Amino acid sequence: MKRRELLKTAATGVVAAGSLAAPRIAAAQGMRTLRFVPQANLSSMDAVAGTQYVVRNAAMLVWETLYGVDSRLDPKPQMCEGHEASEDFRTWTFKLRPGLKFHDGETVTTRDVVASLQRWMVRDTMGQAIKGRLDALEALDDRTFRFRLNKPFPKMLFALGKSNAPVALIMPERIARTDPFKLITEYTGSGPMRFNTAEWVPGSKAVFEKFADYPVRPEAGDWLSGGKRMLFDRIEWQIPSDAATAAAALQNGEVDWVETPLPDLVPLLKRNRNLAVDIADPLGNIGSLRFNHLQPPFNDVRARRAVMMALSQQDYMQAVVGDNSDLWKPLPSFFTPGTAFYTEEGGDILKGPRDVEAAKKLLGEAGLLGAKVTLVVAMDVAITKAEGEVTGDLLKKLGFDVDFVATDWGTVGARRTKKDPPSQGGWNIFHTWHAGADCINPAPYTALDAGGDKAWFGWPKSDEVQAGIAAWYDAPDAAAEKKAMAAINKASFDNVTYGPTGFFLMYQAWRTNVSGVVKAPFPVFWGVQKT
Amino acid sequence: MFAYAIRRILATIPVMAIVALFVFSLLYLAPGDPAAIIAGDQATPADVDRIRISLGLDRPFLIRFGEWAWQVLNGDLGVSIFTNLPVTHMISQRIEPTLSLMSLTLIFSISFAIPMGVLAAWKQGAWIDRVVMVVAVLGFSVPVFVVGYILAYAFALQLDWFPVQGYTPISVGILPWFQNLALPSLALGLAFIALLARITRATMLEVLSQDYVRTAKAKGVDQRAILFVHALKNAAVPIVTIIGIGFAGLIGGAVVTESVFAIPGVGRLVVDAILRRDYPVIQGVVLMFSFVYVLVNLAVDLLYTLFDPRIRY
């Protein structure tokens, strides 16, 4: 017996001699509490105003969506009982399930739904697409509401049920009236768990408690769809400040589930027989080398192509996930591999042996050999640090004069918004990555947009890409969607919207007394239990 | 002395004003943008701009500083950009773990370091002196986070005597409170013990060579009384000064220690705030730390009069 257990036993014997049932009660309470370590600090709770994944993950416990995607990414009714769509996809009528209640006891009505969707439509790209063709969004009665559009929108159910932030979460009308560009300050939802504001210590702990009046759907739970059966009374998010500490706490039984263990520590965790380690998100992530299309040298497509010709995804992926080849694969595409409309159309530039000499020749023809490149790298994020270091080396091989700006993610986040020349605080390249769930199609994929000034950071401009995206939105069937996706992929490679540095997976780890953990782009808490 | 204390407390007002202006200006000039962090990675540049405007971050420096200074003068440190919680509430949530950690570290450090320094001086050149010097050099040389990880590995993961992380409020029980803080305090205190032991040794060596110590020895005064009553009291002024200065080091060390042991203290609060550019929180915490530091220095000054009656203010 270990010393601590001995002390515990002794203390129990002395203190609780007259109350032998107490430890059993405490143990039972422990079984009803899940201690979870999220990927990052939960600093706010608004998954409409912000797009941080950790916020989205917390928000999906507290709020619900009208529809919800399942593990095949098919949207299924969630708060809705069902819908009717006109043949031309211009009129969509929805009916809410009976018995939906907010955590304050108020009934969910279509007034709440309309206000929530109006706020969401301002922020989300699919919402904006709906808003752009909206004649009216109207509450017909307390449970029925209708979209009337002036143009078909076949993707309505996916838009309402997608997991990508901004998520179409339904909030009480008074909360939904908040400016879409300001964070909400009240966290009343209708989801399976209520947020315990009193116990929230931002940066340290967030507590969710079971909502007794939540009407569980009869179907089996599957990602964001079906019955969200909560088998815990309480979920405690213990925010880590250090990944090594989180891994140690998991080994020591102080936490039950770590969403994103440090890759370096995964072999250690795998050797522990009390722990289970598995892929977290089957849709994985896509590494991104983001060019600034407005500033030289990468305002010239030949410079961007030259980098692509020499870019070795193997180098990037090994830097990001190590030598475990199960965790990454080459990606001659902008889309998530293994999904229905995955395409490699136009991706030849990333296939075959890398050709630094040919790339230099192309740069020479463009008169860009030796050009100065400002590479801004967030060194406090393991993935961007690894990517940045590989890029720095690659650019030097290509003969660029590299200004490697090592900084933190907060600075990169601000600096990338600047369109000025690098000498005036701008940039040429930064790194990030995109969740595979965001890259299954163009709708949630802001990084793919090539609308120039209105596009994502780097401001790529390509009419062909934009035409492909428009065609995808209007695609009436799967064949048309597939064709549009292929056109987008090809145009994105022609334009080199950004440089995909490869596809990679991450692990999650949990104690073996926890069961029901599934692979998903977000932690799925329903159906999970402790024994 | 009372009048002196009042004067010193009043003198903190311009100090705090300068600190406030300095911190605000530094954050204004520093790169980074909370709007970009709120918006998240998928947001468009236009979204980031709109959020920046909604937060009022596009307004001129003087207006923003004036508003904040007026709030502070009214006892309001503002509201976190991210959580919308008052900064005073966020600090109050975090102050107990930090105070506990620093208090226990001070107790640990003083309890170990001063006897070590006294013994090392008494037995100058002997093995005990060398051991104390080795501990001091190690304490100085090994960073807090390395000590922290080693302690956590040995005493938490391998021996299972202490938890790896977290904090239990003292109201729950002294034992769990102590279990959570023992390793962090030891990690944080090691460098302080090293500093204090070395200063104590050096000061004691000087005092022990004084005539009155020789006289006391000649009169047959007990060795312990010489060391701890006569010599230590006379060596106390530099030691107390170092304790005061070391307090600043403890504040810096607490930031790292709280991160390694996941203690929800003010140190972690400010680190998280810096990473997110949560300006009101950074400004509030730095202001609070600087006020505490000024008060500690005042306390040190006042303590001098206890140890050396010749000092008068």
UniProtKB/TrEMBL annotation, chain A:
SUPFAM superfamilies: Periplasmic binding protein-like II. It is found in: Periplasm. Keywords: Signal. Signal peptide: none annotated. GO terms for biological process: peptide transport. Residues 75-422 form the Solute-binding protein family domain. It comes from the Bacteria. The keyword Signal applies. InterPro entries: SBP_5 (IPR039424), SBP_5_dom (IPR000914), TAT_signal (IPR006311). GO terms for molecular function: peptide transmembrane transporter activity. Its main location: periplasm. CDD domains: PBP2_NikA_DppA_OppA_like_16. The keyword Signal applies. Belongs to the bacterial solute-binding protein 5 family. This is ABC transporter substrate-binding protein. It comes from Limobrevibacterium gyesilva. The lineage of its organism: Bacteria, Pseudomonadati, Pseudomonadota, Alphaproteobacteria, Acetobacterales.
Automatic annotation (TrEMBL), chain B:
Pfam families: BPD_transp_1, BPD_transp_1_N. The chain crosses the membrane at residues 9-30, 99-122, 134-157, 177-197, 235-261, 281-307. Residues 95-304 form the ABC transmembrane type-1 domain. GO terms for cellular component: plasma membrane. It comes from Limobrevibacterium gyesilva. It comes from the Bacteria. The keyword Transmembrane helix applies. Signal peptide: none annotated. Keywords: Cell membrane, Membrane, Transmembrane, Transmembrane helix, Transport. Belongs to the binding-protein-dependent transport system permease family. This is ABC transporter permease. InterPro entries: BPD_transp_1_N (IPR045621), MetI-like (IPR000515), MetI-like_sf (IPR035906). GO terms for molecular function: dipeptide transmembrane transporter activity. It is found in: Cell membrane. It is a multi-pass membrane protein.
